[in-house]
Amino acid sequence: MNVTVRIPTPLRTLTGGEEEVSASGATVKALIDDLEAKYPGLKERIADEKGVRRFVNVYLGDEDIRFLDGLETELKDGDEISIVPAIAGG
């Protein structure tokens, strides 16, 4: 299964400057593991042992995976994942 992953600017140094990459996995967790195999260092910036890092949002289409099944959210061929760093400020 092939999933398109949109990479935010701060993480593109890990993907050779690519803003979109392809990865595979039946779940978001498996997809992140596949991304880590292809682009070492990416996983630790997206997730930790508790789930998606606090200041990172991961979307399946337009839905935040935190409101779906988190890292266990199932994927299908052709899905689009967006990794979005959270913006904080005052």
Would you write up a description of this structure?
Strands 2-1-7-5-6 form a 5-stranded mixed beta sheet, covered by helices on one side. Strands 3-4 form a two-stranded antiparallel ribbon. The radius of gyration is 12 Å and the shape is globular. It is α+β, with helices and mostly antiparallel strands. The mean pLDDT is 94. The chain has helices at residues 28-38, 42-46; strands spanning 3-6, 20-23, 47-48, 51-52, 56-60, 63-64, 80-85. It has one domain (3-85): Roll (Ubiquitin-like (UB roll)), CATH 3.10.20.30.
What is the overall shape? globular
Number of helices: 2
**Number of folding domains?**
1
Q: In whole angstroms, how far apart are the ends?
A: 41 Å
| Percent of residues in β-strands | 25-35%
Q: Strand tally, please? A: 7
Task: Name the structural class.
Answer: alpha+beta
Average pLDDT level:
94
CATH architecture: Roll
Fraction of residues in helix: 10-25%
* Biggest β-sheet: strands ordered side by side in the sheet: 2-1-7-5-6
- How large, in whole angstroms, is the Cα Rg? 12 Å
Q: Which spans of ≥5 residues are poorly predicted at pLDDT below 50?
A: none
Name the helix and strand elements from N-terminus to C-terminus, one letter apiece.
EEHHEEEEE
The major pleated sheet works out as: 5 strands, mixed
CATH class (first level) name: Alpha Beta
- CATH fold-type name: Ubiquitin-like (UB roll)
Name of the CATH superfamily: Beta-grasp domain
